[in-house]
Design goal:
single chain, alpha+beta, 5-stranded mixed sheet, 11 helices, 14 strands, 39% helix
């Protein structure tokens, strides 16, 4: 599996100028190639292939208007063309239904808050014995190494974010055997119900309180954004205020990402199979709970569970988003109908079990995903109950019998 290892860079003044030059050249090459293809499309001509764009780039370096492109590494410019090809490929795959739809490639602006360049193995970059990162035509840049690389990296991407911070992202290939040995053997199975008051509720009864990083930082963000709005446009003070706002948002995003990493690693380490609900985050983000939904970051958390499960030999299953997990009794399987959000505990009318809404939903998430779990680690057996009046004449899906914690994965 390929993973990205990101580390903080600390370039000096001349190196920052060289990086700014490289960012600008990569942006110009991207925009020139995009303009060439858009002009061809408007004229009704065939799609311009990558080979012709590469030849045009080589010819442009010899002209007085684009002679300064030779001041940066040629690999950076060629990778900018590859980025344009990737953008077009994603756009066309979205039209064909192979991936979610996305817009056509757009021109990059020098006023963008995020810039990046990429060096492949043939660019001649390397990690020096002293720990610095040597980049062609930039120099030896200081790196804050927080961990060792799993293997020799194939590419490095230098990123400058909106807060003015520099990062180096290395693409490395992990060893599957070593990854499997890092996690202890377990046969535990868990279902996860994601929420807002509690970020995650596990089927064993564990509730993880939502940190609400954005809500806690709102006062500081409000002051920083108010100071930004009072600065004159185009002034140096406005640019400084913008960086302060970006740094405040960056601290929130970093704290949220760290929380997701720690929790997802803990869940993957302790369980062999994990079930989550396939939530429609885009739909929930259109409601009055939009800020809280974005603050929770469910999509990022589920993505971390997904790649960590694949890396460490665990199983991740997603339950359907239309499963009535909050309406079905996890003990007897009777559907009791929808309930208001303020109903956090209810009693099943069929078996009389007192159910916690969130824990019951977590157990049902695992059951709907095909995993056999127990509620709060207690033995639960689905009882035979008569069909409800409104369900008479239907053929409901048979429910599995659950007797304590199962050691495997049972398919419904």
């Amino acid at each position: 599996m390929q993973l990205g290892y990101s580390f903080r860079l600390y370039p000096n003044g001349p190196q920052r100028s060289a990086l700014a030059r490289a960012f600008g050249c990569a942006r110009v090459v991207f925009n020139d190639a995009l303009r060439t293809r858009e002009d061809a499309r408007a004229a009704g001509l065939p799609f311009v292939p990558s080979g012709e764009l590469s030849k045009a780039l080589t010819a442009a370096k010899k002209t007085p208007e684009r002679a300064w492109l030779a001041e940066v590494s040629s690999v950076v410019l060629q990778q900018s063309l590859r980025d344009l090809d990737t953008a077009y490929r994603n756009f066309f795959d979205g039209l064909k239904g192979k991936r979610p739809r996305m817009g056509a490639p757009r021109f990059k602006s020098r006023k963008d808050n995020r810039h990046s360049i990429r060096f492949t193995a043939n660019a001649g970059w390397k990690i020096m014995p002293g720990g610095k990162l040597r980049l062609p035509k930039i120099g030896d840049v200081a790196v804050k190494w927080s961990r060792s690389l799993a293997s020799a990296p194939s590419t490095v991407t230098v990123v400058k974010d909106a807060a003015g911070r520099y990062f180096a992202s290395f693409i490395v290939e992990t060893d599957p055997v070593t990854d499997l040995d890092r996690m202890p053997a377990t046969d535990a199975v868990v279902g996860i119900d994601l929420g807002l008051s509690h970020f995650a509720i596990l089927s064993d009864g564990t509730k993880i309180t939502s940190p609400r990083f954005l809500r806690r930082a709102e006062k500081r963000l409000r002051k920083a954004q108010r100071d930004l709005s009072r600065k004159a446009k185009g002034s140096a003070n406005r640019d400084k205020a913008r960086i302060r706002v970006a740094r405040a948002h960056g601290r929130v995003a970093d704290a949220r990402r760290e929380f997701h990493h720690q929790l997802s690693t803990k869940i993957i380490r302790e369980n062999q199979a994990v079930a989550v609900e396939d939530l429609s985050v885009k739909g929930l983000a259109r409601t009055r709970m939009a800020k809280s939904v974005h603050d929770a970051g469910w999509s990022q958390f589920v993505a971390m569970l997904e790649y960590k499960a694949a890396r460490y030999g665990r199983t991740l299953v997603k339950a359907g988003r239309f499963e009535p997990t909050s309406q079905v009794c996890s003990q007897c399987g009777v559907k009791d109908g929808p309930k208001l959000l303020n109903v956090r505990e209810w009693t099943c009318g069929a078996c009389g079990a007192v159910l916690d809404r969130d824990i019951n939903a977590a157990v049902n998430v695992a059951t709907a995903a095909g995993l056999a779990v127990t509620a709060c680690r207690a033995q639960v057996r689905r009882a035979l109950v008569p069909a409800q009046r409104e369900e008479a004449g239907t053929h409901p899906r048979p429910q599995p019998v659950i007797t304590g914690r199962q050691t495997g994965i049972s398919v419904l």
